[in-house]
Amino acid sequence: MPIKTIAGVDVEVTDEGFFVDPDQWTEAMAPELAAEDGIAELTDAHWQVIRFMRTEQATKGTGPTVRILGKTSGVGTKELYQLFPKGPAKIAARVAGIPKPRGCI
Amino acid sequence: MADKIEKVSIIISKGSLEGIYPGLIMASGARAEGIEANLFFTFFGLDAIHAKRVEHIKVATVGNPGMHIATMLGGLPGMSAIATHMMTKKMHELDIPDIPEFIEFIGDTGTGMYACKASVDMFDLSEDDFVEQVDGVITVGEFYDIAAGGEIIFT
C-alpha cells in the first residue's frame, strides 16, 4: 500500500487514497484531504458528515452508503451532494480517514 | 484517469419490478461514485415514474424462467402479487428502498430523469401524469444530446 504524507504525518492509504487504518487519522488532516477532492473549505455541515462517518465506522465496522447517510446523518441527500459533489459517502469517507463504504444502494 | 467512467445514461424499458430495479440501482450507484447519471424511461418503463402506477409495480411471474415455477402456475390469479410480496419483504429486510422511495432518492442525488416522448404519446400520457422528479418528456434525439460523451446502458 502506498504511503502518503498528510499534515506532516506518514499514513498508509489504498490506491484510491482511502485510509487503511482509521486510527491514523486526525482532524487536522481533514482540510488537506478535502482540498485534494476539490473541497476548498470544510463547513460545519461537512464536519457533521465527517464525524458521522467516523462514528459509523467505529460502531459498525463500515461506513454508510449515500442513502443511509441521507436518512440518518441529519444532512439530507440533496445537501450531501452540494457538500460532496463527487459522491458524498465516498468523498466523506476519504476525508474522514475510513475505508471506502461498500454498499450497492 | 482516462479509463474511468464519468457519465452514464440508462434506459429503462420494462415495467416489472425486476425490469426497473437494476436501472435504478445502476443510476444511484453511479451517483455514489460521483458519476453523472441520467435515466430515460421508455415503453412500460414509464410505470416507474407514473405517479399512480409506481406504487403498484409487480414481479413478472409469467414468461420468466428465473422464477422456477411452471408457466401455468405463474399465470394463476394472485401469483404476481404473492411473488412481489415475498420479494419486497426480503428487500425491506436488506433495507433496499421500495420503488417510489428509490425514485425520490435518485432525484435527490441529482440524476436526470426523462420520459420518452414517443411512449408518452402512445400511452396517451402527459407530463402531469409523472412524479415530480421527472425533468421532462424528451425525444430520442434530445436523449442522445443529453447522453453525449457518456456510456449508454439499455435495460
Condensed summary:
The complex is a heterodimer of chains A (105) and B (155). By secondary structure, chain A is mainly alpha-helical.
How would you describe this protein?
The complex is a heterodimer of chains A (105) and B (155). In chain A, strand 1 and strand 2 form a beta hairpin. Chain A has 105 residues and is mainly alpha-helical. Chain A is built from five helices and two strands, in the order ββααααα. Chain A has a two-stranded antiparallel sheet with strand order 1-2. Chain A is 44% helix and 8% strand. The longest helix of chain B has 16 residues. Chain B has a five-stranded parallel beta sheet with strand order 4-3-2-1-5. In chain B, helix 1 packs parallel to helix 4. At the A-B interface, helix 3, helix 4 and helix 5 of A face helix 1 of B.
* Overall 3D shape of chain B: globular
Q: What is the CA–CA distance across the termini of chain A?
A: 28 Å
Shape of chain A: globular
Main-sheet strand order of chain A equals 1-2
Low-confidence stretches of chain A at least 5 residues in length (pLDDT < 50)?
A: none
Number of helices of chain A: 5
- Residues in β-strands, percent of chain A: 5-15%
Number of DSSP strand runs of chain A:
2
SSE topology sketch:
The complex is a heterodimer of chains A (105) and B (155).
Chain A: E1 3-6, E2 9-12, H1 30-36, H2 44-60, H3 66-72, H4 77-83, H5 88-95
Antiparallel strand pairs in A: 1-2
Helix pairs in contact in A: 1-5, 2-5
Chain B: E1 7-12, H1 17-32, E2 36-41, H2 71-74, H3 79-93, H4 99-108, E3 112-116, H5 117-122, E4 136-138, H6 140-147, E5 151-154
Parallel strand pairs in B: 1-2, 1-5, 2-3, 3-4
